Amino acid sequence: MSKLSLRGKASSSKLSSWVQPSFGDLLGGSGLNSFSSTKGALAAESKPKTCPSSADVSGKRPRKRKGDPPASKPQFFSSRQTSQEDQDEPWVDVHVPQSQAELAVHKKKVEEVESWLRVQLDLRSENKGGAVLLLTGPSGCGKTATVHVLAKDLGFQIQEWSNPNTASEYRTDDSFRQSFDPASRFNSFHGSSQTGAFQEFLLRANKYNRLQMTGDTQSQNRKAILVEDFPNQFYRQPGCLHDILRRFVKTGKCPLVFIVSDSLSGDTSSRLLFPKDIQQELGIHHISFNPVAPTSMMKVLSRIASIEASKNAGRISVPDKTVLDQLCSGSSGDIRSAINSLQFSSFTDNSLEKGLWASKKGKSAASAAKAPTRARGRSRATKSTDKLEDSPAIGGKDASLFLFRALGKILYCKREGYEGYEGSEVPKIPAHLAEHQRDRLLVDPEIVIERSHMSGEFFNLYLHQNYLDFFSNVEDVARASEYLSDADFFTAEWSSRSTMLQYGSSVATRGLIHSNSSRAQATSQSSVGFKPLHKPHWLQINKTYRENYLSAQSLFINFCLAPINLVTELVPYLAKLSKTMRNPAQIAFIQDVGSLSLKRFPGRLKLEALGDKDPGALDFDSENEDSTQTIKPGTSSSSGDPTAEPALQSNQEPGTDLPASQPQPTTTEALLDEEELLIEEYDSD
Amino acid sequence: MSLWVDKYRPTSLAKLDYHKDQANQLKNLVQCGDFPHLLVYGPSGAGKKTRIMCLLRELYGAGVEKLRIEHQSIVAPSKKKIEINTIASNYHLEVNPSDAGNSDRVVIQELIKTVAQSQQIQSSTQREFKVVLLTEVDRLTKDAQHALRRTMEKYMSTCRLILCCNSTSKVISPIRSRCLAVRVPLPSIEEVCSVLAGVCRKEGLLLPAELAKHIAEKSGRNLRKALLMCEACRVQQYPFSADQDIPETDWEVYLRETANAIVSQQSPQRLLEVRARLYELLTHCIPPEIIMKGLVSELLSNCDGHLKAEVAQMAAYYEHRLQMGNKAIYHLEAFVAKFMAIYKKFMEDGLDNFMF
C-alpha cells in the first residue's frame, strides 16, 4: 500500500509539473495557475489516507468522467470527517450516499439489485457457477453508488477492476482498502495484454480470499467483483470477453457485477459487449437504471445544500429553490453533474454567478407566475418544455430521449387546456376552421426529434410503423398518412435533401399530431392507454425486395427478359408449371417468390417490439455507401450519391437484431414504470 | 424442354405472326443497306424483342443466335467497379443499362466505345457496323440519355443502336429525333387466338376457340402472358374444356383480395392489415407501381360515378409521389387511407339518402 501511494505521489507530481508550465505560460500566474497548483498539492500531499492517489483517479475511468472538475471524485469511501477539512473537495465525493435512504435511485431498483446480490451471496456455497449481473443506465444515475451502498449494507467486499494505466505498469485500485496489484507482485505480467491481465484478475479474485485484517469481524469471505472499465480489446472483439465469461460462469465462486453506461448516440457498448444471446447463454441478469427522477434529485440536492450551508455558513450562498429546480431539470437525470453544478453555482466569490443566474431567476419566476394554479405533475411537464429554451448556463447537460420515449411523446401528444387564461383570452380560430381547434401542445416536436438522436427520416419510419394504433377514425388516418407522404416527398430531390430532411420530419410529426382529432383536447386524451411500439418493417421489406429482384435477374438471365416482366409474369407462372429443367436455386426461388400463400394474415412479418432503451437503427448516411454495394452487386452508386438511399439497411441488423418477441423482464418492468408516470400526471390535475 | 414462349418464338421476319406490314418494312430497311438507329417501343408482351431479334438475324444471318452471357466489369472514373451482365453474339451486344442504377451513364459510354472501336474483320461480306441493343431505355437517368446522344453521333460509322422501351415519354427528345421510331402495338384478340391455336397445334393439343378467346382477354393481349397462361392451363387440365378456369398468378389474386379487404371495411386496424399485405407483396418482388396500378383497377370496379373520377385523380397524385419519393410504402398507404376515407364517406352519404 505504501509503495503504491508512493508511486502515486510521484506520478501525480510529475503530472502536475507537466501540466503546470503550460498554464503558467498561458496565464502568467493568474488565478488559474494557483488553482492548478493547489490541486496538484492537494493530490500529492493532502489526505493520503482517503485517496490512494490522484493519478489513480485520473487514470481511472477517464471515459466517464470527462465532465467532472479536474481532480474528480477519487473514491467513494471518502468519509465526511475528512471532507470537512478540505473545502475544495468535490461535493459529489463528500456526499456519497452512505445508506439506501440517501440513494437517489428508485427504491424498487435498489431492491432488485439487493435481492439479486443477496441470493447470489447466500447461495454461493452451494452454487457452483459464478453469477453475472449487468447494470446499465445513463451516466450519473447511481449505478455504482447503489452497488457500493449495498456492499456496505449486505456486508461484502468489492474487488474492482480498472484498466491498467499503461501496458507495462498497471494497477488495480479497489475500494475498501483492498488492493490487488499483480504488477508489483507478479512480474510475469509485464507486457501481457490487458485482456490477459483481466482474465488473470478474474481468476485470482475468484480464487483467493483477501487476507484477514484486524478489525474485519464479519463476512470475511463474502465479496463481489465489480467491473466498470473494460479492456479496450473487448470493444473490438467482444468474443474475447464472452469466452472469458463462459469460463468464469463455469468456475466462478463469487458474483460478478458489470456496470455499463448507456448512451444514446449509437455507441451501444452494452449491446456490443453483452448481446442478448450471450446474456441468455450465460444467465446474465440485466437490471437497467432510469435517469434519476426529478423529485428524488431535488431531495438530494436540497439535502446537500442545507448540509453545506450549515457547515460553512457565510462562505457559501445556498441557492434558492428555483435555482435548484433549474439545476434539476438541466441535468436530465444525471445526479453527478447536478451536484457538481450545484457546488459550482453556490460559491459566493464566483463573480460570474450573479449575472448568470439573475436572468434565469427572472425567467423561471415568470414561468411560475404564468400558471400558478397548475398541479405539480403539470408544472413539471411544463418545466421540461420550458427548459428547452433556457437551459441553465451552469451544468446544463444535453438532454436526450430514448427513442421509445420520443415516439411516445409524439404519438400520445399531450396537450394542456387553457386553464390559466380568462375566457376571452383563449386564442380561437375562425368558425369555419373550428374543426382544427387544438389545445396547446406540451411537446415541441422538433426538439423531440433532435433529442432522439436520429435522422428525421428514420424517425418518420418509426412513427409510420406505430401511428395507426393511436388513431380511431379513418379520416384522421387519411390526413396523417398524407402528411407522412408529404414528408417523404420533401426529400425526393437529392440536391435539396439535406435541408429538406428537417422540414420533412417536422411536417410529419406535426401533421401526425394535428390530424389526430381524437386527441385534440387536453381533456379527451387519457383514453388511449398503453400501446406497445414496434420497429419499422420497411427497411427489412425493402431489402428483401431488392435482393429478390436481383436474384431473379441473375437466376433467370437466359430468359432475356426485363426484370419487371420477369418477376410479375414469368416467375409466378413458372410456379404454376411443373418443369424439371431448372436448377435447385431457381426452384427454391420460384417457390419462395413466385407463389404467395393466400392466407388472410401473412406470417412473414413478425412485429419487433421496441424496448424503452433500444437505440434506433444505426446512422443512416454512414451506411449508404457500402449498403448499395452489397445490395446491388451488379451496380454501384456514384460516390456517395444520396439518391441511392433506399438501400440503407444492410448493416442495420446489429441495431435491431433483438429476437422478436422474447420476454424481457426488465424492459416490461420499465414500461410499467413509464405507464405509472403517465397516470400520475393525469391524476394530478 | 423449354417454355412455349421460347420454344415457338419466331426467328425470322417472314415468320412473324402479326403486324406483317411492319415486318416487311423492316425487311426493306435491312435490304436497302443504310440502317439507322432504331427506337422500338410498345407495351410489354407485344413482341418488340422478338422483332428485334428477327431483324438482327435478317442483318447478320444465323450467327446472331449464338448467344453468350458475359459478365463485364467496368471501372468508373471514380474508381468504382461496376458489374453488369450482357448478352452478346459476334455481331451484337445486348445490355440493360438501368441495371447499373445511377452509374448507367458510365456503362453506356464504356460498352458502346468498346463495341464501336473494334472493326468487323470481313467488312466485304459482313455489315460494316455492329449493333448495340439497349433495353429499358426509359429507365435510364437523364444523365445517361445525354451521354447516349453524344455517343450515338460519335460512333455512327461502326455501330448502330437499337433502343427498346415501353414508352417514349421518358426518352429525351434529342434521342427520339435521332432514331427511327418503330412502334410495336399489342396484337389484337384474334391475333393472340391464332398464335395460341398455332402453338397448341404444334404441341399436338386441341385448344377450344372459346378458351383461346378467354385467355386472350384475360391476358390483356399480352402475348407472353397469354402463352404462359395457356401453358399453365395445360398443366392444370387436359384435355382443355372451353370454360375452364384460367390460372392467375398468386400475386394478382392476393392483390384483389387486398382490394376487397379495403372495400369491405374502413378502419385504422384494417389499414394496418392492408399494410401487412402490401409488405407481403413487396417481399414477393412485385414493384410498387404495379401494386398501385393493380389496386386502383380493382378498387375502381367497386366505385361508381363521380367517385371513380375522384379515386383516379387521387391515384394519379400518389402514383406521382411514388415515382418521386424514396419509400413507396408511405404513398401506397396514404392512397389506401385516402380511399378508405372517401369510400366511407360515400357509403355513409348513400346510406343517408337511402333512409330518407
Please tally the β strands of chain B and state the result. Answer: 7
Structural class by SSE content of chain A: mainly alpha
Q: Indicate how many domains the architecture of chain B comprises.
A: 3
Q: Major beta sheet of chain A, specifics?
A: 5 strands, parallel
What is the name of the CATH architecture of the largest domain in chain A?
Answer: 3-Layer(aba) Sandwich
The major β-sheet of chain B equals: 7 strands, mixed
Question: Can you give a write-up of this model?
Answer:
The complex is a heterodimer of chains A (685) and B (356). Chain A is mainly α. Chain A has helices at residues 2-27, 31-44, 54-59, 80-85, 91-94, 107-123, 143-154, 182-185, 194-207, 232-236, 238-251, 269-273, 276-282, 294-311, 321-330, 335-345, 351-370, 376-389, 403-412, 445-451, 456-466, 474-490, 497-515, 538-555, 563-576, 584-594, 621-631, 653-656, 665-683; strands at residues 132-137, 157-161, 172-173, 179-180, 223-227, 256-261, 285-288, 415-416, 440-441. Chain A has 5 domains: 2-91, no CATH class; 105-288, P-loop containing nucleotide triphosphate hydrolases (Rossmann fold), CATH 3.40.50; 294-389, no CATH class; 403-536 and 671-683, no CATH class; 538-666, no CATH class. Chain A has 29 helices and 9 strands. A 5-stranded parallel sheet of chain A has the order 2-5-6-1-7, with helices on both faces. Chain A has a two-stranded antiparallel sheet with strand order 3-4. In chain A, 40% of the residues are buried. The model of chain A is unreliable at 1-85, 167-191, 350-393, 600-604 and 617-685 (pLDDT under 50). Chain B is 54% helix and 12% strand. Chain B has a 7-stranded mixed sheet, sandwiched between helices. At the A-B interface, α22, α24 and α25 of A face β3, α9, α10, α11 and α13 of B.
